[in-house]
Amino acid sequence: MEAFPVWSDKYSVKNAEIDLQHKTLFILAEKTAKLLNRHIYKAEIKELLGEFFDYMKTHFKDEEAYMHSINYPYIIEHKAMHKKIIKDMSALLGDCSSTNDLKEKLYKIVSVWLLEHIVEHDMRINKFKQSQEKQIVEEKEKEETFEYICGCKDMIHKLDYGLHIKIKYLNIAYKCKKCFKELTFNHIEEKTD
């Protein structure tokens, strides 16, 4: 049996609580791998399985609440995967004829759950969250305007964040289409009441 992956930041979903739970699951998986590579009694496997089972139920509940909070579009499918993992683990408890059979099935569930579920499916949650945050920042930047002046009397040019950065920080010159003078940042601060 091959070794399970070790936790690293590449498996982070950028949520402290969920990441801490994933770290704990990686530790439980490593513990499982060590037990499965030696002679083990059925009672030990069932105890480990019970520990995994209880922790995963709590983790799934928390992860589903997190997905709901960010409006994750595949929450229904993700919940279905969680239910299948729990169902498979429940079936394991009473459906094994030998200790080796139980070890093999436990290994399969733990490796599939870790390798496939966290590494592939939970990472999609992170990708969605990052794209959502990027979209919010881009929308905010589009809404935000910066005032520039030119040679025209009483003319204010309202520029978006992208153009503001190009002019102010990248030294790219933009000219007024009316007076052909270079736009300059309006440093007059608005007075607040």
Automatic annotation (TrEMBL):
InterPro entries noted in UniProt: Haemerythrin_Fe_BS, Hemerythrin, Hemerythrin-like, Hemerythrin-like_sf, Hemerythrin_metal-bd
Membrane spanning stretches: none
Entry keyword set: Iron, Metal-binding, Oxygen transport, Transport
Entry protein name: Hemerythrin
Family according to the record: Belongs to the hemerythrin family.
PROSITE patterns: HEMERYTHRINS
Pfam families for the chain: Hemerythrin
Transport listed as a keyword: yes
GO function terms (MF aspect): metal ion binding; oxygen carrier activity
UniProt cross-references to PANTHER family, sorted A to Z: BACTERIOHEMERYTHRIN
Ranges for domain Hemerythrin-like: 16-122
Domain of life where this protein originates: Bacteria
